[in-house]
Design goal:
526 residues; alpha+beta; six-stranded antiparallel beta barrel; disordered N terminus
Amino acid sequence: MLKNFNGRPSLATVLKASTVAGIAAAVLATGVPLEITRSYAEAVKVQAPAVPSFANVVDAVSPAVVSVRVENRVNPVADNNEGFSFDFNGRGFDDLPDDHPLKRFFKQFGQDPNDQQGHQRRFGQNGPNGPGGKGRLRPVAQGSGFFISEDGYIVTNNHVVSDGQAFVAVMNDGTELDAKLIGKDPRTDLAVLKVDGKGKKFTYVNWANDNNVRVGDWVVAVGNPFGLGGTVTAGIISARGRDIGSGPYDDYLQVDAAVNRGNSGGPTFNLNGEVVGINTAIFSPSGGSVGIAFAIPASTAKDVVADLMKDGQVSRGWLGVQIQPVTKDIAESIGLSEPSGALVVAPQAGSPGEKAGMKAGDVVTALNGETIKDARDLSRRIGAMQPGSKVELSVWRAGKAQPLTVELGTLPADQKDASADDNNQPQQPEAPASEKALADLGLTVGPSDDGKGLAITGIDPDSEAADKGIKEGEKITSVNNQEVSTPDDVVKALNQAKKDGRTRALFQIQSSEGSRFVALPINGQG
């Protein structure tokens, strides 16, 4: 039987025992003699584990988990610096019905929002923004966090603290400590705070080894949902490597422990009391937990948090190319044996990738000898490297693999290192009227105003091109990595693809949102 330090069984063991219980129930239903069924019942009694308890884990880790209160200066709306004037959808305060929640609120606390004299007594003649007063710090958000060191460093989410001016860490015994923002990383949604314990050593937790995290493992989430600090929920790892579209570094753990608003930034523990993930997002049609939560894995968080603690920021390697996934159709169109790697849509001007000779249409298949699975994989690996590192890329170009050596730059604050989401390309002018139809592709094209590429001036709504999102007003810039400026150029590229035994051709499509590659069938072949 697999056990953790607390003597609790793994979920696999529980399921096995449940199966035994099911067999016993089936035997009873068949009318087997009592002496036989009794032996089954005894077997179940011996093998079935006790109901799992997470109490020992919770006792050990709870002192390390905190609630994070975020505060900001919130100023009442002033009317020409002469007090308050309130407007509720065109109505004044006195026009509201007596049972209106806002009216009840002000009456409960003995305040009249239209009492300008009282306002001046409290804040001075010029209101809270003038010489007589300053906007007060008020709670504007709340989340969770946890100590990662005994000297007071706290890990939480960037989205918890991003709008705050002041922060308070509330410990499980109710102690409130002012916290300072050390650094934050929006790309991974991580942030680090620090409290001054005046020599006190805080209980802290350690990172888990991702290699030991398996789908089906028990996990425990501790946090501050809806302001209810110290709330504990339990579940299992439902999946790994989830991409929820939040950025190029998406690699989330999916857990089914109940996670709600306020849990953000809080830890998910394994049964050894180690942090396997940081709760960050939930999928919920209702706004509450439906058993689908996402946590930043420890392997991602560990390095980012270390950088934030050391430097207050994260320095990432930068390749400087826009990339997209390689689909099965795209792989077939360029002669790749399988749909893997990252397809280069365009290198950015002056980027390390451009300087190293990377071109649109290249497919990065390996980095330092390790296979690149997809575009996300390349983004994460490049981002994890230090600026100035030299990397060896294997690039698929013109039907064969070619080596490239690239010295990585530093990812600028407003850039993405190598992401399929980077669509900041200049908008292209609209095309003139069509000159020739490429009927087999369902496209009508004409010359573009700048003489580069072919403008798409019409599209058959029943064609595969339309199904794949190609639209009128976009532009074809290349076919099978050959630049095109006339319909004859397209036909020449298609004929060459036929000679090479391919059934699809790779079209580079330019739009106001950026550039992308689409594989289309040749002469209607699928």
